């Protein structure tokens, strides 16, 4: 009886620690919710703008609780004038994208018809089909340059981006900034102008929202991305940018000044993008933040397109914004592979290079990023416990351990679990509201069911990420481009 009581006591302590961690995590999310409210966000924006205009000594810039001092290359009228009129380089790394790259480039060229932009597409010698498809979109080679890498693929996305960056620097046109995109993106008209205004205002990097295209088919695997991105890009990233003066790059819809990239390239042997990272976009944004460069998240309402059909069943009520739209995997295996790649790069690779830095608020957000694998496994554990409790209630099963003695008598545990239940309900309501703003109420009502799909996918991805990274650390073999098969959103064909 003594051993059983000690075991129950240990179980109770571990359960209390788990519930306490969940409460702390939910309190952070609640704080972000409050700061995302329009009146609070406007005040934060006004405060950040006031701070950015204030001259701050470099040695104190990282100690401020708001935006750091503007990136030094952005101070001065000449640089701003150059940003206002100089051409823009759009970098698109591609590996086995023949099925989508042609249509994507046609949509892109229409969207940037009035902008001084030039597109650079990177392709590998052992993937000529991608080059042929890209060449058909711009047969005169007037606005698209195909950059042939010197080696076969796949390598890493960062390796391809580094070659594109060097080719853009060699171009006689003096580009003011570059914009990152993938071969499956649908670029909205007005994106370049929006990003340009953000950089003119003093940012070194700017990010527009990314919204998954939900199409018309019911797909809990593909649609759970829409729930996550609507939450992240409508609530978390805007608040994070205002509080820390930096924003994680999504890898698409990201603009970076050439001066900022050149500054990183000087310290990295001419390669601003880390070729060893699976999330080179996230790593780049952290590297810029460590230099004191300012990153902003920009969102603006878009004009209704005459080609778009907002009355589609799943998207009725969608609130259009200038954003990048793309399709995400609808198959379980593909979704797990993609998220495992994100987890390896964000939670396992980047901490070894950058650690924690910046203000206390920035450190909290970085720590939250690096807990994504642990959070995925904890969420799966909690879902399993909730399912076990539900089964016990339905079938009137009471574990004998509950009656085993005083070793499990922790009355506060029930209250803590109830508090977490309220937090869970709050999170679901917030996701439903944000999903309704972006995709309509009919789509948003499926958030609770898709939440379970997201928990299962994230847990499987966490296990895969740990397994791959452990094998990588043992064998020292490089991590290569884990290809995700792409398709274009339906809006591209309308």
Q: What do these coordinates show?
A:
The protein is of the alpha/beta class. It has one domain (30-371, 483-493): Alpha-Beta Complex (Spore Coat Polysaccharide Biosynthesis Protein SpsA, Chain A), CATH 3.90.550. 55% of the residues lie in helices and 8% in strands. The protein has helices at residues 2-35, 38-53, 58-61, 77-85, 101-111, 128-137, 157-170, 191-200, 220-244, 258-267, 280-290, 332-354, 360-370, 372-394, 411-439, 441-444, 447-475, and strands at 88-93, 117-123, 144-148, 177-180, 186-187, 205-207, 210-212, 254-257, 295-297, 324-326. A seven-stranded mixed beta sheet has the order 3-2-1-4-8-6-9, sandwiched between helices. Strand 2 (117-123), helix 6 (128-137) and strand 3 (144-148) form a beta-alpha-beta unit. Helix 1 runs parallel beside helix 15, helix 9 packs across helix 15 (411-439) and helix 12 packs across helix 17 (447-475). The longest helix has 34 residues, at 2-35. Mean pLDDT is 84; it is low at 55-76, 305-318 and 401-409.
State the main characteristics.
globular; 494 residues; 55% helix; Spore Coat Polysaccharide Biosynthesis Protein SpsA, Chain A; three-stranded mixed β-sheet
Structural class: alpha/beta
- Mean of all residue-level pLDDT scores: 84
Cross-sheet strand order for the largest sheet: 3-2-1-4-8-6-9
How many domain regions? 1
Which CATH top level class fits?
Alpha Beta
C-alpha termini separation: 70 Å
What is this structure, in a nutshell?
By secondary structure, this protein is an alpha/beta fold. It is built from 17 helices and 10 strands. The chain has helices at residues 2-35, 38-53, 58-61, 77-85, 101-111, 128-137, 157-170, 191-200, 220-244, 258-267, 280-290, 332-354, 360-370, 372-394, 411-439, 441-444, 447-475, and strands at 88-93, 117-123, 144-148, 177-180, 186-187, 205-207, 210-212, 254-257, 295-297, 324-326.
